[in-house]
Amino acid sequence: MSSLNFYPSLKEARPFIESIRTQPSGQKLSVGSVHTLGALHRGHGELIRRAAEENDIALVTVYPNKIQLFPGSVYEYSLEQDMRLAEEYGATHFITSSDQEMFPEGYNTFINQGEAYTRLNSSVFPFAARGQVTGAIRWMIFTQPTRSYYGMKNIEQALLVKQAASDLLLHTEICHVPCIRHKDGIPISSRLRGIADGPRRELAAVYEVLEFGRKSILSGHQDVESLLELMKTRLSENLSSFKLLYVTSVDSNSFAFKENLTPPLVLHIAVQNEKISHFDGLCLLSEEDLLHGPNTIWLDN
Amino acid sequence: MSSLNFYPSLKEARPFIESIRTQPSGQKLSVGSVHTLGALHRGHGELIRRAAEENDIALVTVYPNKIQLFPGSVYEYSLEQDMRLAEEYGATHFITSSDQEMFPEGYNTFINQGEAYTRLNSSVFPFAARGQVTGAIRWMIFTQPTRSYYGMKNIEQALLVKQAASDLLLHTEICHVPCIRHKDGIPISSRLRGIADGPRRELAAVYEVLEFGRKSILSGHQDVESLLELMKTRLSENLSSFKLLYVTSVDSNSFAFKENLTPPLVLHIAVQNEKISHFDGLCLLSEEDLLHGPNTIWLDN
Question: Using CA atoms, how far apart are residues B120 and B185, in angstroms rounded to an integer?
Answer without folding.
Answer: 20
